[in-house]
């Protein structure tokens, strides 16, 4: 009897996978943009730009992601008079929230590039923009990849919150659709849900490892060196 | 002391490649350079010697605009590096001004500072194409010629990390020359090298000195090189020039006791 | 209808504070569980028995890579099948504690690794018993360095407790949803909830950054 239901479980959960993947990939894309914009703004010579970016970073990190999600879905419509498409709203919250964490990753990695590299670029009269784009960022990006890997997995995990706002992603397919119908088999259903997330997390890690290897090869480093320098990275 | 130093002012700055006037540099409360005046002629090779912390490297960094002066002015090629004239007032130079004057100056660093994200070729053509506006082909031709000159023609597509320290420093020298600078700053360029690699790099610099008319300012602890290479040697101590003479004079008959002590200490170490 | 009604905002404050208490309770208990369980994981990850290490490593990686919300659902729906009937807040604390233990385990590991090799060797040279090496030499050096990282996870957990509304816990956000729903005034409810989180987490984060500067980052 279990195999019969297993097929049902998998097909119902599978229907949620596209939403989870879209939310995650869209969230990651927005995270990358927000991280770089805010992270570089944190390093801006202009105080105003730095302060604005700091407010974004601390504001989004300081309030809970669930609150941000609910605010966007239940409070904002009262203010603006229309409801956002849940999946789009989800991508916005996931992206902006994780972008606030990513901004610190970008700032930290840019600052970790040795000062001598800036000086080498100045001595060649490169413009500030060229210094950043051609010399500093290519080196900083290698440092960013492992912490961004963690951040993207956090984002994938956070995409389960979208079940609260009725996005039919994997968690909702499991908890709100399957569990009420097959309560006795909650164990199997929820284990399958967890395994789907595990597979997606492994895919993210595999892609990031590949990117890391490519980026370190460009810097003439061996990947093992990279792995050794890995350390405890920031919290959720 | 400064009476015997050349102190050009006003119009006379045109005849000099580098002019420091009343330059002061502090880091917090620590005064690194004070009331510093000196000038360097076009094509002249000047070596700065002195104990560590005497401010030699700071002079190169000021010229490269990696540091800003606290007081005084610096002229390079007749143009003020440290200040711009705005409404008849001298105000500290902004980034835009620095960038324009900076193009005349090249620098080679103790730690090479090659860009690890580019190949040797990339390091050599980056600034010529982006800053001087050379075409890729022109920049490549220049890069190949320079690498040939520094004896690394076959390494053009290598990665900086695949090179030895001596090779990296040769690339760094070629990179600086690719900008065709009027002034070349050499900041302890052999200090980070293994002893057996030093001679080759010094020989290369010597050849560059012989075959070009670039004005060269050099900070080094290699006294033998300083003697052969320089037209003038300046001895620094406590942020001031305490002796400024031709190398044969300064190394054989130093006038100051501090210079004698310093030279003796350096010779004993080597 | 005004966008923001101060009277209403004031009137829901007591309910929100009730919710905040639940949030704080869950955070404190969850953290205590995460601190202890994390240490157990960290020590098991150094166990002499290979299979134990592999098993624990696999479990830790699995829990870290999957959503806390689903894990909480898992505990909530599955435990009763095995005769373990707990109230929602207890399930929530278990879920938070277990999930964050996989992070704290990593923090402890890094803290222990950061104790210089020479310290172990010196302890060995003095023939200190094994438990004394840990309690007298390694942990006293490791613990201060891990405090900021542990603190950061407490703040993260604090901000993640609203997940517990999924199993019907009336925490800060649960209360906000409740009182906001009565008159359909969500702006005040969720804005205040967000402010509470910010007011508590931001100063704590600043304090931890200062502590971090004192003891160094792992």
TrEMBL record, chain A:
Family annotation (SUPFAM superfamilies): MetI-like (SSF161098)
Source species: Pseudonocardia asaccharolytica DSM 44247 = NBRC 16224
Chief localisation class: membrane
Taxonomic classification: Bacteria, Bacillati, Actinomycetota, Actinomycetes, Pseudonocardiales
Protein name per Swiss-Prot or TrEMBL: Ectoine/hydroxyectoine ABC transporter permease subunit EhuC
Membrane topology, from the record: Multi-pass membrane protein
InterPro entries membership: AA_ABC_transptr_permease_3TM, ArtM/GltK/GlnP/TcyL/YhdX-like, MetI-like, MetI-like_sf
Pfam families in the cross-refs: BPD_transp_1 (PF00528)
Keywords: Amino-acid transport, Cell membrane, Membrane, Transmembrane, Transmembrane helix, Transport
PANTHER family with a match to the protein in the record: L-CYSTINE TRANSPORT SYSTEM PERMEASE PROTEIN TCYL, MEMBRANE COMPONENT OF AMINO ACID ABC TRANSPORTER
Gene name for this UniProt entry: ehuC
UniProt-recorded Gene Ontology molecular function terms: transmembrane transporter activity
An example Gene Ontology CC term for this record: ATP-binding cassette (ABC) transporter complex
Family under the similarity heading: Belongs to the binding-protein-dependent transport system permease family.
Subcellular location(s) per record: Cell membrane
Residues spanning the membrane: 20-45, 66-88, 187-211
Gene3D superfamilies linked: MetI-like
Alphabetical GO biological process terms: amino acid transport
Domain ABC transmembrane type-1: 17-208
Automatic annotation (TrEMBL), chain B:
ABC transporter domain span: 18-263
Pfam families: ABC_tran
InterPro entries on file: AAA+_ATPase, ABC_ATPase_HisP-typ, ABC_transporter-like_ATP-bd, ABC_transporter-like_CS, Ectoine_EhuA, MetN_ABC_transporter-like, P-loop_NTPase
Bilayer topology annotation: Peripheral membrane protein
Tagged with keyword ATP-binding: yes
Subcellular location: Cell membrane
This protein's GO CC annotations: plasma membrane
The entry's keywords: Amino-acid transport, ATP-binding, Cell membrane, Membrane, Nucleotide-binding, Transport
Gene Ontology terms for molecular function: ABC-type amino acid transporter activity; ATP binding; ATP hydrolysis activity
SMART domains per record: AAA
PANTHER family: AMINO ACID IMPORT ATP-BINDING PROTEIN, GLUTAMATE_ASPARTATE IMPORT ATP-BINDING PROTEIN GLTL
Similarity remark: Belongs to the ABC transporter superfamily.
Name the record gives this protein: L-cystine ABC transporter ATP-binding protein YecC
Organism of this sequence: Pseudonocardia asaccharolytica DSM 44247 = NBRC 16224
TrEMBL record, chain C:
Membrane topology category: Multi-pass membrane protein
PROSITE patterns: ABC_TM1 (PS50928)
A Gene Ontology BP annotation from the UniProt entry: amino acid transport
Keywords assigned by UniProt, alphabetized: Amino-acid transport, Cell membrane, Membrane, Transmembrane, Transmembrane helix, Transport
Entry superkingdom: Bacteria
Gene Ontology terms for molecular function: transmembrane transporter activity
Primary localization class, coarse: membrane
Domain ABC transmembrane type-1 span(s) in chain numbering: 20-208
InterPro entries, sorted: AA_ABC_transptr_permease_3TM, ArtM/GltK/GlnP/TcyL/YhdX-like, Ectoine_EhuD, MetI-like, MetI-like_sf
Subcellular location: Cell membrane
Gene3D superfamilies linked: MetI-like
Alphabetical list of CDD domains matching this protein: TM_PBP2
Transmembrane segments: 20-47, 189-208
One GO CC annotation: ATP-binding cassette (ABC) transporter complex
Presence of keyword Transport: yes
Family: Belongs to the binding-protein-dependent transport system permease family.
Name of the protein in question: Ectoine/hydroxyectoine ABC transporter permease subunit EhuD
